Amino acid sequence: MKRREKSKTFSPMDTTHKHTNHLIQESSPYLLQHAHNPVDWYPWSNEAFEKAKKENKLVLVSIGYSSCHWCHVMEKESFEDEETAKLMNENFVCIKVDREERPNIDMTYMTAVRIMTNSGGWPLNCFTLLDGRPFYGGTYFPNAQWKQVLIKLSELYKTEPKKVEEYAAQLTQEIKKTEIIKLNEEKISFTMEDAKSIYTQLEKSFDNEEGGPSRAPKFPMPVNYIFLLHYYHLTKNEKAIEHVKLTLSKMAFGGIYDQLGGGFARYSTDAKWKVPHFEKMLYDNAQLVSLYSEAYQLTKEPLYKQIVFETLEFISREMTSSEGGFYSTLDADSEGEEGKYYVWKKPELEKILGENFSVFSDYYNVNNIGFWEHGNYILLRKKPDEEVAKIHNLSVDELRKKISKAKKILLKERGERVRPPKADDKQLTSWNALMLKGYADAYTVFGEEIFLNSALKNADFILTKLKNKNPIPTLPKREGVGLYHSYKNGKATVNGYLEDYSFTMEAFIALYQITFNEKWLNEAKQLMDYTIAHFFDKESGMFFFTSDLSAEAAAQAGLDKELIALKMETTDNVIPASNSSIAKDLFLLGIYFDDNNYKKISEQMLNNVKNELKQYGSWFCNWGLLLLNKAAPFYEVAIAGKDAEQKRKELNQIYIQNKLLVGSKTKSSLPLLQDRYVEGKTMIYVCENKMCKLPVEKIEEAVKLMK
Question: Which residues contact 539 (CB under 8 A, 6 or more apart)?
């Protein structure tokens, strides 16, 4: 990461715009969207806080992301308004932050706003003292209310500075306490009863009619359903698998899924998965590909396979760079209207489809069910193919041919519309790793070479574009190899966060299991050793979200304003917590390399969250996956011999998630493969805690040993 240029090089001379602020030098698409606001925005930097101290002004930290609809609304209403901008510039130093580029900053101020308001979201607007300590905040403010807030806070700071200081000090202490986990010194023990407590918490919120949680809006929470799949596999709890199948089918049929082009929107605004918030996020689609692939492996439901193939076609078509990286988001808006690109009016469908409209309208509910607003319809499904085919006196094959033809026609027609902008074409290491794992999981189940090729190309992209032996040139070279967080226009920026390391390790381990190329295990181990060296907190046994490189050392290099609190991300959400992810990595790498230190750290981390896990299970499902591996039998399956790859493919057709695979066509130095190679044969070894059963040669025999 290069040193940020100081403002003496900043030149606002831009004849094409009335205003140009300090964001003009940034690479983030979101920050550049605000570079010509009349607000004198600064990026997050020492420079901004130095200005606040020099002029004795409060600081506004405004956080959002490029595809955020209400961020656009607030910009249009307030940040582009000359009168409002004048109020902001005269009384505050205004800082704009891209939450995707700087999740550590977002995490800190989101915590502050949640403490103050018991809610959160974006845009996130937090007012702070000159040193970054917050004292007031919220999300979206209409312009009139926003101006009142600006005036009142400015007056409050001038008339009662001590009161503001006292509240900021109190709030900062509360922020520092959140998600800082203490070492649990109780005896380490994990049971299926602990896992049941997670399931019980999830079951309380089941929507047994529409799937998902019984609330609105509804967000896809892929890791929750992956936990339910694993839990069902081990317990045969029918309610668990039925809820997964209901949810996945309802989502696939709903408006949250792009029925023409594939891929899922960020969330549904209602309880029926009908009206999406139309932006598409890479991280959602990555995890949903993994979920639907795994669900297909267990159930063999054709709909799930269709969803995986269509979603990956969407990713390839619209979210993949020529270098093999994956873009972050597609905007919800086009031509200033949310969802305009995706919805249809009935007359235009009748004109385009002609005689096929009748079948299409029944299939995708161009009726009261699919009606949205302003004469627009959201395409969604309610009936299975067999039922629609019967209504129209068609065979299922005839129906599917008609629907396929109509989809191609409409997709081509839609392509002529003004497209939603590729709202954010930066490529984030963490989200790329999630998508890489999605491709690996899809290849595991379906064996499509194109999926493997995309995974390998992206893995190479991460290694060549996002890895750096010395991320901060002004500091002494550090042992190991670090990761950058973001890549755009040929340049990698921002020192990597824990999520970048943890998700990349998960992806590389998955890649090893579908290739048996030890390069990927060694890359994962190298990253793990670096992560332990620079993120690990020995006192708690957990990992900080930012490395030791990102605080004092980075500030010394003039790169970063040190945050008011070091955070530990432990709660799983729409993206799993980086601590739960790395705990799983440690568990697997500990087995692969027979590394007791890895195993001990992983166990201690899980023990640290055990009490919270049992109490708030629905927010700890990724931890729950690790818990299941510790509480139930976990198998080490070693395949050695000339047909190792073929045996691996055969085994991957069978749903057994409580296992890891290791294999080689020749001799290997990996602990699990030592002395396993027999010339001319392919032997399968099923082991548990280093205790191995007699080797077998057939997959069906190996499967019996795991039941």
Answer: 183
